Amino acid sequence: MADLFVDLRSDTVTRPTAGMREAMATAEVGDDVYGEDPTVNALEAEVAALFGHEAALFAPSGSMANQIALQLLVSPGDELLCDADAHVVTYEIGAAAAYGGISSRTWPAVGADIDPEAVAAMIRPDGYFAVPTRAIAVEQTHNRGGGGVIPLSTLQKLRGVADDAGVALHCDGARIWHAHVADGVPLIEYGRLFDTMSVCLSKGLGAPVGSLVVGSAEKIERARMIRKRMGGGMRQAGILAAAGRYALAHHVDRLADDHARAARLAEAVAPFGVLATGARTNLVALDLTKHALDARALAAAARAEGVLISVLGPRSARLVTHLGLNDADIDRAVAALPRILAAA
């Protein structure tokens, strides 16, 4: 498929580079459930240090990392606040309720444009026979918000809201590397704002597997038990962790290339009134509400032109740039998509 199509569906479709495969093949390994895999241990220490936290835990997926973090912060029957389009309540198949017994309440979907005062007004304290709020979750960058970057000032205000209310703050940082590159905010600056974080290696950074939970040493010790309960304890996982370490060393700064390519895609489709948001990072959100084509029709027409796009809803679609694309691929997409949109 990679040779036949320009795959703009997701940044999860990348394949390990030659250098990454070499790092995996030569990785020193041990039994990670026993805490004896040196490559996993090195990855966890490296990521914890990047965000200024005491510890981190390697997990098979971003969804598991998020759900482990939420269970660290919210007891069964208590409440999580997040936005209505957040990954933790949209794409994780009800895991917060099913595994953590967590009640979720959402503010209207606004992507990265969060109003901290509105969030503060939603927090429920103990008592009054209401479900008490225990944590707030945000997503950086925001997937369904078109890769939007929550401004540092907004996150700092949310930290203040959480502190004033005595609740925790979690970051689904699946693409926080993109925010770091786009806005120049140091990773450690993000890290100091959150009680827990999940950060993904298998999206923009191009590793084949893996995310990490980041937090205090006490929280990560508890997280190991939750991971095991959820079936996430892996054995010689250093083969996978080596890919993550390679990605951190080689694939962060190059995210700027993905951002520039996404901007080219956004510029190409903008004249047709389908651009939902500006392209701040590597995601381009399309709103086809006022266009003759719906999302499935656009995807089918694009596929016929050798371009794959993601259908998010009847009238919403997404284009994603990533490690597996080059400028020639974007040239091909930039030629095809305007032609399809103009012909409808």
UniProtKB/TrEMBL annotation:
Residue(s) carrying N6-(pyridoxal phosphate)lysine: K203
Named cofactor requirement(s): pyridoxal 5'-phosphate
Entries under InterPro entries matching the protein: ArAA_b-elim_lyase/Thr_aldolase, Low_specificity_L-TA-like, PyrdxlP-dep_Trfase, PyrdxlP-dep_Trfase_major, PyrdxlP-dep_Trfase_small
Top-tier EC class: lyase
Lyase as UniProt keyword: yes
GO molecular function: L-allo-threonine aldolase activity
GO BP term, pick one: L-threonine catabolic process
A GO CC annotation given for this chain: cytosol
E.C. designation(s): 4.1.2.5
Keywords: Lyase, Pyridoxal phosphate
Domain Aromatic amino acid beta-eliminating lyase/threonine aldolase, residue spans: 7-286
A Pfam family that the UniProt record links to this protein: Beta_elim_lyase
Keyword Lyase attributed: yes
Family: Belongs to the threonine aldolase family.
Protein name: Threonine aldolase
Species this chain originates from: Micromonospora parathelypteridis
